[in-house]
Amino acid sequence: MVTTARQYIAAQADQVILELSEYFGSHLQTKRAIREQFSRDESAHTPVLPDAVVAVASTEEVCRVVTACSHWQVPVVAYGTGTALEGQAIAVAGGLTLDMSAMNRVLEVHQDDLDAVVQPRVTRRQLNEYLKDSGLFFSVDPGADASLGGMAATRASGTNTVRYGSMRENVLSMEVVLADGRVIRTSRRARKSAAGYDLTHLFVGSEGTLGIITELTLRLFGQPEAISAAVCPFAEVEGAVRTAIETIQSGIPVARIELVDDVSMQAINRYSGTDYVEQPTLFLEFHGSAKSVREQAQMVQVIAADHGGSDFQWALKPEDRHRLWRARHDMAYAGKALLPQSRIWATDVCVPISRLAECIVETRRDIQREKLLAPMVGHVGDGNFHLVLLVDHQDPKQVNKAQDLHERMVMRALALGGTCTGEHGVGLGKKDFLQAEHGEALSVMYSIKQALDPQNIMNPGKMLPDRQ
């Protein structure tokens, strides 16, 4: 009788389940309904049932599970909020999924040092709610209320990145459980160090393929004295992009500068009940003193006017600003509402800012040629833009057209000196582009993976393309 790899893993997982069941009791579940909850994330990738789901509440419990999985050579995948967009949380090889829900405490806030220590399932909104009376905030805002562990694992960024940086810049240290059950701390709380290899930044963006994050130390910022937001429509998308580029090149410290194209604005108005002009639009936010915020906005308004921007509208009250950014953050769901039978297929690329207009204009032409529905939004201040490909997955021709367009978009970005993903991560959807992007450096990544996870149990099938 021939045993497939999947059958072998299922048999080995039974041994792990047997070993762990007495300790975890009802926190270890093999019921199909529970496994289905953890079989998918927000991506369009096909759900896969894990063999079991284990709810863990501490680093010690994560170690216990990982050690058993290592002994029996069973895959293990960490699951936070399930908001990943490239299938990072899907147990494609089976094995055990770790439900991190109970690891959701803010452990320490060091106000004088501007940092906080949290467990991985704390979400960004939860942390900022905890901090609201401290005068501090955590800056990284990918839109979804993602877990901070997941955000670190995928090197998330978002709307504030242009001023405050991504998770790469804002994770100071991590506690990580390795594939053999060892626990390491990647660095100390000091803001800089020249001691040893930079392990923190090795694990930031590793998507659970090298270890499982069980604690994070994060950089915080002081709340600005004044915040204002604005929207500005443009006759053409190129004018909006040129405005963003010139704003950054002029050294204006804008906090957020987001492009939303005309299709996206239509979707937002329908979904959120707003009445924005349905043209390519920049959403902006300015942080600083009352005087500096006013000066920043005036300078951007002049730049926008030179590129066809008009009707510069302000949002000064907190409730108006929150409404504006909520509309922007709901874009993926607003887009889906344009084609209810579709699944959200969100993808992104990032290019040097000087090549951004070229990349966006060519991609929009491609969308029009293929007659596809694909709203576009972008963190244009750092050269990153996204498509929400609205595709009926029951229509093979439409799926094939979307796949071809996606590949051309990525290869165009690479040809312009960019990357296949600026913030969604690699997961399942982008791993076949890593050879084109990294060349021989990919062999170094394989070596790191082999050194830290020789049995390939940590989130297998993600990030690195299968070796031929």
Structure description:
This protein has a 7-stranded antiparallel beta sheet, with helices on both faces. The chain is globular, with a radius of gyration of 22 Å. Among the domains are: 117 residues, Uridine Diphospho-n-acetylenolpyruvylglucosamine Reductase, domain 3, CATH 3.30.465; 107 residues, Alpha-Beta Plaits; 78 residues, Alpha-Beta Plaits, CATH 3.30.70. The longest helix is centred in the N-terminal third of the chain and has 20 residues. Helix 10 crosses helix 13. By secondary structure, the chain is α+β, with helices and mostly antiparallel strands.
Q: What attributes characterize this protein structure?
A:
globular; Uridine Diphospho-n-acetylenolpyruvylglucosamine Reductase, domain 3; alpha+beta; seven-stranded antiparallel sheet; Alpha-Beta Plaits; 468 residues; five-stranded antiparallel sheet
CATH level 3 topology of the domain at 106-222: Uridine Diphospho-n-acetylenolpyruvylglucosamine Reductase, domain 3
The chain-level structural class is alpha+beta
**Highest CATH level, the class of the domain at 106-222:** Alpha Beta
Beta-strand content bin = 15-25%
Shape: globular
Q: What's the number of extended β-strand segments?
A: 18
Overall pLDDT score: 93
Task: Give the proportion of residues in helices.
Answer: 25-40%
Distance between the termini: 26 Å
Number of helices: 17
Round the Cα radius of gyration to an integer and report it. 22 Å
Ranges where pLDDT stays below 50 over 5 or more residues in a row are none
